[in-house]
Each structure stands twice: as structure tokens, then as C-alpha cells.
């Protein structure tokens, strides 16, 4: 199991039990998790660990089991920071245990029954994922001051003060910024995903609202590198001004809920009617194109808008702008060469940017 697989599992599984069942299937290893009081918290069903538990209770007394497992430190107070493996002759199976830590405090213990060799990286990732479920209640109330500032900006509260605070105080948060969002009804899943995000990149600011997880990050940080692998993860355009977080947060939320299945007209009208800052809808690439036109008296932006408005019909653009067809072709090539505008992969973003820019100019 790798980090990307773990993130997908966390996104799918809203409870610890669902997580244990899914990871046991991926690892092909039955296992269970006990809390710090050695009470069973979750147990896998496929592969099945319940038969192992039942066998213990059926074939011997509970106290004999406890004594035997104390001998192997399964029920001991000693903390196992590394995978601890032993042979249980009663079950005639190998057993491996490792503790789950949150903020350096043990909160549970995982007991694996390996059916084949398991790599240590997969074991540690499984432990890491389990920890996100065992610490979710802490994340519900203990937002740090940076997260509180981010939450206030999302609500549009005192943008000047909170933006200045984040810019001056939040370590590792550097422009350009980007907001990522996952919308889901299961808050446990959102908390689990929030915790995992912090494991990947300590300089992100994740917060969970009533039905969505928002993540503020520098655009070059790792969360941006994995976003294409996670279904349901919406993103905003990169931006420079933290005072505009509310508008960019709205972008990310809408993208999360609708993904690529967007009716462009509805998307444009919705965002333009809801945002207090239409300029935030203009992508950096289109902004660069507009600035270039102003500096060099070129007409790349007009050509781009006309091309999209006419359904990418070059002849129609030629007639509207009164230029030769070869000139249209040249300008379209330059849009990609100079500004990296690729309509095959980012047509929705570019179309929206042109609509917003024309809306502002009007």
C-alpha cells in the first residue's frame, strides 16, 4: 500500500470499522485494533479476524489468553513504536503488533495476523491511517490559531486583519496560494482526511465545516501534486491575495460538488452572481495574457475570447476580428507558447476567466 492508496481509502471510509475492513482487503491480512484500554475497537471481516478472536474465547479461558498474550507483550503497557512480531503456538500463526500514537501518546494497538510477508511501509501507513480516526474528536474542537484565521477568512470576517496575520505568522505558507475542497456528508471521513493531509504536508491549513473540508496551501506543496488522484477534490485557481480567500473557497467548493460535469453557462452565472470579487475568477494565465496585450498592444485576449465564444471556429473568429485566418492560427499558437494556455485540458477554467474578464470590462 502506498500513500495515494491510503488517501483514497480515507476518502471512502467514514468509520474506523470501514477503514479496517478495506485496509485488510488491500493488505490481504486479517487484523484488529484495540483502544488504549485494550477494548476491541474494530476487527476485519475479509480477511476474517473474527474467527481468530472466537477461537481464543472458545478453546481456552479468557484469563489464559490474557496471560499468554501478556507474555508476548500484546496486553503489556510497553509501547511498541516498531512492528513487534512473534509466533503464537496456540493459533499456530505469526502475530505482529504495533501501537498507534497521536501527539506521542498511545491511543490504541494494532494486531496483525500476516498471511505473507508485509513490508514495513505498508504497516506504518496502516497505523497512520488508523490514527486519523482515533484522534478525530480532537480535530473537531482544537483548531489552532492559523486554522481559526483561515475559517474567519472563508466566512468573510475582517479579511484585512486575518490575511495580515496569516501572511506574517503562518510558517511555510507562501504565495501563490490555492484552496482545495472536498464536500461530503460524512464528517468522520472529512476529519480523517484532514488528519492525513497534515501528515503529507505540515504547512497546509485544513478545516472542517458542516459538510466540507477546506485546505489552504501553497500551490507548490504536495497536496497540489496528488489532487488529480482523488475523486471529489475541487481546487481554486492559484492566487496571491489572502483577503480574497472567500471567493476562492467558493470556487473550490463548487468544483468539488460538480467536478468536470459542469454546464459552463450555469457555472459562470452562478459564480459571477455569488462572488463579491469576480476578478478572483480570472486565472493567472489569462491575467498574464491581458497584461501582455496592454504592454505590447497585441490582441491575444480578444482572439481567445472570440475563439471560445464561436465554439472554437477559426473562420468565425477571422470574420469577427477582421483579420486573416493565418493570423488567427498564429495567435492561437502563441497563446499556448507564451502563456501555456491549453484549451484541451483547461477549457472550463479559461472559458470562465474570459467571461469574468469581459464582465468586469463591461
Question: What secondary-structure arrangement, pairings included, does this model have?
Answer:
Elements: H1 3-12, H2 16-27, E1 31-35, E2 40-43, H3 50-59, H4 62-71, E3 84-88, E4 93-102, E5 105-112, H5 120-134, H6 136-141, H7 145-154, H8 159-169, E6 177-183, H9 187-200, E7 205-208, E8 212-218, H10 222-226, E9 233-235, H11 245-258, H12 264-274, H13 284-296, H14 300-309, H15 314-321, H16 325-339, H17 343-361
Antiparallel strand pairs: 1-2, 1-5, 3-4, 4-5, 6-8, 6-9, 7-8
Helix pairs in contact: 1-9, 2-5, 5-9, 7-8, 12-17, 14-15, 15-16
Protein name: PucR family transcriptional regulator
Domain PucR C-terminal helix-turn-helix: 301-354
Organism: Stecheria intestinalis
Amino acid at each position: 500500500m502506498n500513500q495515494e492508496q491510503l488517501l483514497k481509502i480515507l476518502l471512502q471510509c467514514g468509520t474506523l470499522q470501514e477503514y479496517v475492513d478495506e485496509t485488510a482487503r488491500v493488505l490481504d491480512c486479517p487484523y484488529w485494533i484495540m483502544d488504549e484500554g485494550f477494548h476491541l475497537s474494530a476487527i476485519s471481516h475479509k480477511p476474517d479476524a473474527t474467527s481468530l478472536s472466537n477461537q481464543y474465547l472458545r478453546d481456552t479461558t479468557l484469563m489464559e489468553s490474557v496471560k499468554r498474550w501478556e507474555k508476548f507483550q500484546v496486553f503489556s503497557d510497553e509501547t511498541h513504536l516498531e512492528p513487534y512480531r512473534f509466533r503464537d503456538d496456540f493459533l499456530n500463526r505469526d502475530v505482529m503488533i504495533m501501537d498507534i500514537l497521536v501527539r506521542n501518546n498511545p491511543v490504541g494497538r494494532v494486531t496483525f495476523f500476516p498471511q505473507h510477508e508485509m513490508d514495513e511501509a505498508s504497516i506504518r501507513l496502516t497505523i497512520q491511517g488508523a490514527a486519523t480516526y482515533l484522534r478525530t474528536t480532537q480535530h473537531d474542537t482544537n483548531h489552532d490559531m492559523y486554522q481559526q484565521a483561515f475559517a474567519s477568512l472563508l466566512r468573510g470576517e475582517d479579511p484585512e486583519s486575518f490575511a495580515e496575520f496569516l501572511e506574517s505568522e503562518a510558517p511555510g505558507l507562501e504565495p501563490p496560494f490555492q484552496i482545495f475542497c472536498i464536500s461530503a456528508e460524512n464528517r468522520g471521513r472529512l476529519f480523517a482526511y484532514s488528519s492525513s493531509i497534515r501528515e503529507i504536508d505540515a504547512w497546509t491549513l485544513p478545516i472542517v465545516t458542516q459538510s466540507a473540508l477546506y485546505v489552504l496551501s501553497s500551490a507548490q506543496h504536495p497536496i497540489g501534486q496528488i489532487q488529480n488522484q482523488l475523486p471529489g477534490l475541487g481546487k481554486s485557481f492559484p492566487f496571491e491575495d489572502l483577503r480574497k480567500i472567500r471567493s476562492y473557497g467558493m470556487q473550490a467548493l463548487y468544483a468539488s460538488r460538480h467536478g468536470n460535469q459542469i454546464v459552463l453557462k450555469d457555472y459562470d452565472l452562478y459564480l459571477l452572481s455569488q462572488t463579491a470579487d469576480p476578478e478572483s475568477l480570472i486565472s493567472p494565465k489569462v491575467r498574464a495574457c491581458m497584461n501582455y496585450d496592454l504592454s505590447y498592444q497585441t490582441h491575444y485576449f480578444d482572439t481567445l475570447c472570440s475563439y471560445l465564444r464561436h465554439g472554437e471556429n477559426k473562420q468565425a473568429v477571422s470574420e469577427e476580428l477582421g483579420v486573416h485566418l493565418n493570423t488567427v492560427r498564429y495567435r492561437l499558437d502563441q497563446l499556448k507558447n507564451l502563456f501555456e494556455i491549453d484549451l484541451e485540458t483547461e477549457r472550463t477554467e479559461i472559458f470562465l476567466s474570459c467571461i469574468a474578464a469581459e464582465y468586469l470590462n463591461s
